[in-house]
Amino acid sequence: MPDTAARETAPARTGMGIRLTGVSLGYGGRRVLGEVDLEARPGEVLVIVGPSGSGKSTILRAVAGLLAPDGGTVTADGVPVTGPGPDRAMVFQDDALLPWRTVRGNVELPLDIRGVPRAARRAAAQDWIGRVGLAGWEDRLPRELSGGMRQRVQLARSLAGAPRAVLMDEPFGALDAQTRAVMQRLLAQVLRDAPATVVFVTHDVEEALLLADRVAVLGRGGVHAVHDNDRAPGAGAALRGRILAELQELS
Ligand SMILES: Nc1ncnc2c1ncn2[C@@H]1O[C@H](COP(=O)(O)OP(=O)(O)OP(=O)(O)O)[C@@H](O)[C@H]1O
Predict the structure, then answer these.
(1) Atom of ligand 1 nearest to the CA of 58
(2) Among 38, 56, 66, which is best to mutate for testing ligand 1, by the most ligand atoms less than 8 A from CB?
(3) Ligand 1 atom with the shortest distance to the CA of 50
(4) pLDDT digits over 40-85, tens only?
(5) Keywords of this protein's UniProt record, alphabetized (predicted)?
(6) Integer Cα distance of 64 and 226 in angstroms
(7) pLDDT at residue 7 is higher than 80
(8) pLDDT greater than 70 at residue 95
(9) What is the rounded CA–CA span in Å between residue 175 and residue 65?
(10) How far is the CA of 26 from the centre of ligand 1 (A)?
(11) Cβ(50) to ligand 1 under 6 A?
């Protein structure tokens, strides 16, 4: 990658610190969550699990700045979140790619928006396309790709803008088991080179344990527990059992 591209698109050195303090959230006056206290530490992968309808996506929307809290504060590096920003990229289950743009055009989008010059934009997009294993597919349109490939494009697009936080809502939920496993490994690998803070929502406890530094269990209108994912041999099975028991109790 040319120097200019590397300079303008290099990932920030550390991820963003995200904090929810006494946050209540709801829709049209109907409360979904009350008094949520939760922190994503700079550079960590915080995975949120919880029963269906417990408010996992709602928390993500609040951090993204797409939903204003009814009470409490959401801060990014200590600054209240008042709306969406390029420092916090969202990745959804539905790929949300622009159908009329090629793979390259989609990956370049966040750089385009930031006004990065064309050559630097191209080089950075190419770098990310290669990292997610899509070299040779640059000129294809989203409809010519499989679901897994579209999620790769979405991942490359979200990271190409060098966000300091990536907010992922069941990004692999629609993929078959094999593609999902490949994408989980790919995500773990690319995150090593892009030290953003990640808040990742999933139903899948195995996925949580694979990716998380910490796992937050949501239920009954708030955060039930937050667990460190100690990756020491044997620790995974114990934590898996504990989280599954908590989820059963909360459902
Ligand atoms: N746009 C909306 N308008 C009104 N209510 C909503 C909206 N989005 C979510 N809700 C409600 O808020 C609650 C929490 O939804 P949310 O999608 O955050 O849960 P979730 O834990 O992510 O669920 P799932 O695991 O099923 O995706 C649910 O009762 C849901 O019906």
Answers:
(1) 18
(2) 56
(3) 21
(4) 999 999 999 999 999 999 999 999 999 999 999 999 999 999 999 8
(5) ATP-binding, Nucleotide-binding, Transport
(6) 21
(7) no
(8) no
(9) 27
(10) 9
(11) yes
Ligand 1 within 6 A of 56 CB? yes
* Residue pair 26/32 in contact by the 8 Å Cβ criterion: yes
Closest CA to 32 of 52, 12, 16, 18: 52
Output the CA 58–ligand 1 centroid distance in Å. Answer: 6
Element holding 22 (H helix, E strand): strand 18-27
Kindly report the protein residue whose alpha carbon is nearest to atom 3 of ligand 1. Answer: 27
* Cβ–ligand 1 contact at 202 (below 6 Å): no
pLDDT at 8 over 50: no
Q: What is the pLDDT of residue 129?
A: 93
Amino acid at 27: Y
Q: Is 60 exceeded by the pLDDT of residue 3?
A: no
Residue of the CA atom closest to atom 9 of ligand 1: 58
Is 58 a pocket residue for ligand 1 (Cβ < 6 Å)?
yes
Give percent of the chain with pLDDT exceeding 70. Answer: 94
The mean per-residue pLDDT over the stretch 239-243 comes to 95
Q: Is residue 11 scored above 50 in pLDDT?
A: no
The first and second tokens of residue 232, run together, are 């020491």
Instruction: Return the domain boundaries, the chain.
Output: 39-87+163-250, 99-162
Nearest of 97, 37, 47 to residue 73 by alpha carbon = 37
How many angstroms from the chain centroid is the CA of residue 195?
A: 12
User: What is the CATH number assigned to the segment(s) 39-87+163-250?
Assistant: 3.40.50.300
